[in-house]
Specification:
With 259 residues, the chain is of the alpha/beta class. Helices cover 49% and strands 15% of the residues. It has one domain: Alpha-Beta Barrel (TIM Barrel). Strands 1-2-3-4-5-6-7-8 form an eight-stranded parallel barrel, surrounded by seven helices. The structure holds pyridoxine-5'-phosphate.
Length: 259
């Protein structure tokens, strides 16, 4: 069964709404671990809009499962990664105005630069994951720059299916069209997962996943790890974070069993 990395940025987003001290992402990491998280992910953004440098240092001290640092490929982030030493560095594109990471990293367009960047991370003992769309040219470029892992962007799959959970607003034809779109996106991710493995990299996936749509992704052959944040933190408002993580792990297990 695929492991579950829990993204806790969303907890820091709530804290930053008041620029206060609560809720504390470090407590969130502990609770997520208690609920069975196999990894903790945070994104240190250039503008520090949610997670900040102090959070990262405190998390490094208390997190027992692998700590995954999502970051832009900049010199500043390289220095921080070298000093904090996360278990993984995940390279993502970063746009100032975006609400969340909006698309995969265009590895193919900046191959030479990223190759050097990945080599410097490797030199510091940090394996690199790249967040990419399910497109073969990006996967091949990821292999050429020396990426250890590809995290396949599942956002288009997730968003294609969003309206399926509001069936009252849809007639039968509308449902068929949406289901076909979801099927197409799922097929692209499945094919990308096979290419990633054939190229000798680790196959991870994430973005926009929730208890309803995670099953089909969890069932993909060779999937190593899922990264999920928003849906787990949303569920935690009602049940607490431990239980929200447990519920997501059950949904992943159910998806694997249904395969
Ligand atoms: N993977 C990456 C690279 C991300 O940037 C995010 C966003 O936080 C996630 C996974 C998790 O996405 P979500 O919060 O929609 O579950």
């Amino acid at each position: 069964m695929a492991a579950l990395g829990v993204n806790i940025d969303h907890v820091a987003t709530v804290r930053q709404a008041r620029r206060g001290r609560e809720p504390d992402p470090v407590v969130a990491a502990r609770e997520a671990e208690a609920g069975g998280a196999d990894g903790i992910t945070v994104h240190l953004r250039e503008d520090r809009r949610h997670i900040n440098d102090e959070d990262l240092r405190r998390l490094r001290r208390i997190v027992r499962v692998p700590l995954n640092l999502e970051m832009a490929a900049t010199d500043e982030m390289l220095e921080i990664a070298r000093s904090v030493r996360p278990d993984f560095a995940m390279l993502v594109p970063e746009g100032r105005q975006e609400v969340t990471t909006e698309g995969g990293l265009d590895v193919a367009a900046q191959e030479e630069r990223l190759k050097g960047f990945v080599a410097r991370l490797k030199g510091a003992g940090i394996p690199t994951s790249v967040f990419v769309d399910p497109e073969e040219n990006q996967l091949r470029a990821a292999q050429r720059i020396g990426a250890h892992t590809c995290e396949i962007h599942t956002g288009r799959y997730a968003h294609a299916g969003d309206s399926l959970y509001h069936p009252e607003a849809m007639d039968e034809r509308g449902r068929e069209v949406l289901e076909a779109a979801v099927g197409r996106e799922l097929a692209l991710i499945a094919a990308a997962g096979l290419v990633v493995q054939r190229l000798g990299m680790r196959f991870n996936a994430g973005h926009g996943l929730n208890e309803e749509n995670v099953g089909a992704i969890a069932a993909l052959p060779g999937l190593a790890e899922l990264h999920i944040g928003h849906s787990i933190v949303s569920q935690a408002v009602f049940t607490g974070l431990r239980e929200a993580v447990r519920r997501m792990k059950s949904a992943i297990a159910a998806g694997c069993r249904a395969d």
